[in-house]
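User: Could you go from structure to sequence for me? I need the amino acid at each position, not a summary. Structure tokens:
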């Protein structure tokens, strides 16, 4: 019975890591270049709509010049 909280805590931790890791991936070429995830430029994960940073990046192709 003492193992249940430990196993449950471990399962929650692993699930959290799996779910949060998917948020950190953007388009491969942009991710490699800028080392940032999709939500840096998009309004949400899986959304095509760009936020201000994404629109700026589309024009300048340089994330450093597009301060958040």
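Assistant: Here is the amino acid at each position, in order:
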């Amino acid at each position: 019975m003492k193992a249940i909280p430990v196993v449950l805590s471990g399962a929650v931790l692993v699930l959290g890591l799996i779910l949060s890791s998917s948020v950190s991936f953007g388009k491969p070429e942009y991710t490699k270049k800028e080392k940032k995830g999709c939500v840096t430029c998009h309004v949400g994960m899986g959304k095509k709509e760009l936020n201000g940073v994404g629109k700026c990046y589309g024009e300048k192709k340089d994330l450093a010049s597009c301060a958040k």
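One structural detail worth keeping in mind: Residues 2 and 8 are 11 Å apart (CA to CA).
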